[in-house]
Structures are given as C-alpha cells and as structure tokens.
Amino acid sequence: MRGKRTARRPLLLAAVLPLLLATACGGSAGADGADGRTVTVTVGYQSKTINTVTAGTLLRSLGYFEEELRRLGRADGTAYRVVWQDYATGAPITAQMTAGKIDIGSMGDFPLLLNAARGRQLGEPTRLVSVTGYNLAGGLNTVVVKPGSKLRTLADLKGRKVSTSVGSAADGTLVRALRRAGLDPAKDVRKLNQQPSVGASALSAGSADALSQFVAWPGLLAFQGKAEALYDGAELNLPTFHGVTVREEFAKERAGVLDAFLRAQRRATDRLRAEPVASAESVAKETGLPAEVVYLYNGAHGAATFDPELRPELLAALKEDVPVLEEAGLVSGVDVDAFADPAPLRRAVTAAALPRAGAARSELWPRGASATRSFAEPGALLKALAAAPAGSVRAAYVPDAVTGTPWFADRAVWVSDGSGWRAFVTRAGAGRWAAAHPGARIVPYADAVRAAS
After folding, report:
1. pTM
2. Is residue 365 part of a domain?
3. Which residues contact 432 (CB under 8 A, 6 or more apart)?
4. Residue 348 and residue 258 in contact, taking contact as beta carbons nearer than 8 Å
5. Is 259 found in the same domain as 125?
6. What whole-number distance in Å separates Cα of residue 210 and Cα of residue 199?
7. Based on the domain organization, do 389 and 440 belong to the same domain?
8. End position of a domain, from candidates 199, 214, 236
9. How confident is the model at residue 360 (pLDDT cuts 50, 70, 90)?
10. Which residues partner with 163 through β-bridges?
11. Residue 359 placed within a domain
C-alpha cells in the first residue's frame, strides 16, 4: 500500500505531520498513523453533478461511509480516515486515480470509459462497481440556448458555437443528436471545450450560441431564467448514467473498505428515496444549488432514478458509447465486460432490490412543506397552481408529454389539444406535437394557468 510509517518526532513536526502526509501521499489509501494502523481513503466526487449524490454530496453529509468504516475498524483493529475531494468533472478524478491518489470516484458514462482506458494505459486499472443515478432515455443531458434565442432546433446550430465538456456524457449526447439532425459534429458546429461553469458564462455573454451539459447545469440555468431548452437528451432514447469506479489494486487490498463504501451508498440511496425533499434540501445546503433545481433531478419523480445495480441496459448503453469515443480518438479497445464488476456490490449489499421508477407525474412543492403533491395529469397541476394563493408555491414540475423528462412547469412549453393539457421541455417538441394534432395550439404558461382555473 502507498503510505508512510513515522517514528517519534519533535512536537512541532508531530503537529503538522498529518498535513504533510496528506500532501505527500495525495490522500491515497495507506497506513499513515504513528502506529501504522490508520488508513486514509480518498474519494473523488462531483458535488454539483447531483445524480452522483449517493456516492458523493449526500453520502458525505450523512456520514454513512465513516460510520461503516468505524464498524469495520472495530472488527479489524484499524482506524480509517476519509478524505473527500470535489471536482467539476470526471476527468481530474481519473487523473488522480491513475496517479494512485484517489481510491474511489464517481463520474458519468463517457468519463467512466475514459477512466477504464487511462487506467489500463497507465498501469493503474480501475473497475466499475456501482451506479448512482440514471435515466433510461437519456434525459439527464440537455442542450440549452439563451432565452428568446431564434435557434429552435438542432439544425439551427449549423455554423454556431456550442460549449460542452469534450469527453463528457453531455458531449456524447451532443454528438449523437447532431448526427440525427443531419449535421457533422466535427465540421458543422464549432465545439468549445469548456468546464460547465465556464460554458454557462459563455452562453450568458453571447460567446457561445448553445450549451450542452449534464445535470444540474441545464436545469439551474433554466431556473435562473438564463436559458431555455433547445434539445432534450431523452429524445435519443439511449440510457445515460453515472457510476462508481475504484482502483483495482485498492479493491483487492482493501475489499472491506470497498464493501463499506457500497453499503453506505445503498443506505444513502434508501435515504434519498424515502426522504426526497429533505435530501434535496441537504444537497442544496452542501452545494449552494437551489433546492428546487436539485429536486428537479433527484426528486420522487425526478429525471434521475437512483439504484446502485449495474443494470444490463446500462452496460449495453456503455458498450454503444465506446465507438463514439473511439471515433473521437479518446479511447481504444475498451472492454466493458472486463471493466464492469458487479461482484463487490453483490457481496456487500444483501438488501432487497429497489423498485423501478414508475410513470412520470407532475408535482407541486408548497412553500414550507416537507413533501410535494403529485398529479397524474398536467391539467390537474395547472388547476392546483391556479387555486394556490400567491407566493404559496415553491416549485412545480411537469413531465414532457413524449419523453417523460421532468421540467419546471413555468419553463415548459404548454400545448392545448382539445383533450387536455400537455407540456414539453422544448419548443421543437411542442411544435411537432401541435403540427401532428389538428386544433392543438401552443399556449403561454400564464395563460394555461388562467384557463385551468
């Protein structure tokens, strides 16, 4: 193991030794206590990529991993210390893992493949051991534009500048979506390889015409009134997910620690499902994101479904991602079956299987409430909004009528078709529906609420 055993030192050195060791070892797992019985475990996570919270932000705030390690420590006589390192994307987590400085990390599907490839290339192989949040249709990635933009479809992006994080799940969505729209991602648009926060600023400043990103950036910008959706990733109908990867050496040498992490992740998943509003509030407090945005993705009927299982549909989708990254020259010869390892999760977690996600429903979050109200039909949500006293609604959510992707009700595009109300994430989606249904018309949100009353 990577670590350092110390002898007795002067008092001053003893006081600063933990900091020196953390720097020298980069936080990697190892025995670094004076008695050689303290093991440091470093976890890389993405606090603002909120469908990783059960392996990151929420897990950290609940203290479940530390609790499981204390239980392990009582059994094996070892003291464990957890170092949490927060990153904006998966790429730096992979860099630290392949340097042996991060033991466990969470990232999106495309970065996971990069993680697998880099690990093999650099002699520090990694394994995919669990999933955090997923969407079977791909609704965790969205392309957005500035409010009032004249751009209405992906075809309108020809010759335009689009910000994304190259090699990310959102970049993969962009590439595939452009191809379906008849555009060449390498020639017909100018991709700007930017961190999500930089891309968001570029969109607001006008130096980017569109932004393709993963959660929670599209929802955050829409909530802030800084963007509107141009393309819903769920239109691809291809699963997207985030997962947990571990250094293979660490998994072998510290199998008990990995088991503790996976048990803690399952407990955090159970907590999020049982208390979605409280969990959203907790994540919001830790990240600085609005709780309303967190709930859009992580709520009871949010865009992300949380389940640690390495589902066959997700692994199949991961295999379909490989050619996209190979074509971009980012990976070669990634063996998904060799990379994915369901054995640790089966060994560590014996709890009953989690229920699958049900049909999408509309939700209303009353201000000051610890739970939301759900509705089977968008029209019922509109009636509830119409009847609600001014200022009494914290947020309202409605699923896209075709893709099922939830969106803020006041940011959705509403259509009245004579038989009821339907909502859409994008203007293009609403336009297609209206064109295919005689008599259907797009109605501004405020007018839809008034009509429902």
Report:
1. 0.91
2. no
3. none
4. yes
5. yes
6. 9
7. yes
8. 236
9. confident
10. 192, 211
11. no
Q: Which residues pair with 40 in a beta bridge?
A: 81
Cα–Cα distance, 267 to 3 (Å, whole number)? 30
At 7, which amino acid appears? A
Q: Cα separation of 207 and 420, whole Å?
A: 40
Instruction: Please report which helix (H) or strand (E) contains residue 230, including its range.
Output: strand 228-232
Q: Which residues contact 346 (CB under 8 A, 6 or more apart)?
A: none
The count of structural domains within the chain is 3
Domain that holds residue 179: 141-236
Residues 265 and 221 occupy one common structural domain: no
Residue 319 lies in a domain: yes
CATH number at residue 148: 3.40.190.10
Pairing state between β 190-193 and 161-164: parallel
- Which domain-ending residue is among 331, 348, 365? 348
For residues 185 and 174, the answer to whether their CB atoms sit within 8 Å is yes
Phi first, then psi, for residue 50 (nearest 5°) are -80, 0
Identify the CA nearest to 231 among candidates 202, 207, 209, 205.
209
The three-point CA angle 282-288-293 to 5° equals: 75
Beta strands of 152-209 (E only): which ranges?
161-164, 190-193
pLDDT digits (tens, 9 = 90+) for 175-232: 999 999 999 999 999 999 999 999 999 999 999 999 999 999 999 999 999 999 999 9
Query: E-assigned strands of 282-418?
Result: 305-306, 362-366, 373-375, 393-399, 406-408, 413-416
Q: Is the same domain home to 250 and 106?
A: yes
| Tokens linked to 194 | 């930017």
Question: What is the rounded distance in angstroms from the CA atom of residue 80 to the CA atom of residue 71?
Answer: 10
In terms of domains, do 254 and 124 share one?
yes
Distance of CA 159 to the CA centre of its chain: 29
Residue 181 amino acid letter: A
Amino acid at 318: L
- Condensed to tens digits (0 to 9), the pLDDT of residues 1-55 reads 434 333 333 333 333 333 333 333 344 556 554 455 899 999 999 999 999 999 9
Q: Is the dihedral of CA 212, 215, 217, 223 positive or negative?
A: positive
* Residue 365, helix vs strand vs coil: strand
Give the C-alpha separation, 54 to 31, whole Å: 27
Q: What is the mean pLDDT of the chain?
A: 91
